[in-house]
Amino acid sequence: VVHRNISNSEFGKDEFASEMNVSPSLLYQKLKALTEQSPLNFIRIIRFNHAMELLQSQKYSIVEISEMCGFSSASYFSTAFRKHFGKSPVEIGAAKCYPSDSMRHRT
């Protein structure tokens, strides 16, 4: 359900519960028991993991990836991505381009 709605920036816990045909409180209880995550955190983790895959493919810009993963602002996406993974989207893309630090500093 989350993957089907991954680019929908309006997809949140209420829409998730509706798609699953359960109440938001029941969705929270079930997800918390199964994943130890709230529905919003669960959605965010799936979005960030998808963004990581897209960044590593090097086929899309950061703006495109942020939109494809349901973030309405590329700057918020970059900030939240860095907080989640400890590296910015640019660093992830650059790491794939340049496998060693010595290569990054070449002109």
Plain-language structure description:
The protein has 107 residues and is mainly α. 65% of the residues lie in helices and 0% in strands. α1 packs across α2. The chain is elongated. The C terminus is likely disordered.
Question: What descriptors fit this protein?
Answer:
107 residues, mainly alpha, disordered C terminus
How would you briefly describe this protein structure?
The protein has 107 residues and is an all-alpha fold. 65% of the residues lie in helices and 0% in strands. The protein has seven helices and no strands.
The geometry reads as: elongated
Count helical runs. 7
Order of helices and strands: HHHHHHH
* Count of β-strands: 0
The radius of gyration over CA amounts to: 16 Å
Structural class: mainly alpha
Mean pLDDT figure: 87
Largest sheet: none
Fraction of residues in H or I helices: 55-70%
End-to-end separation in angstroms reads 46 Å
Contiguous runs where pLDDT drops below 50 for at least 5 residues: 96-107
DSSP strand (E) fraction?
Answer: under 5%
Secondary-structure map:
Elements: H1 13-19, H2 24-35, H3 39-57, H4 62-68, H5 74-85, H6 89-97, H7 101-104
Helix pairs in contact: 1-2, 3-6
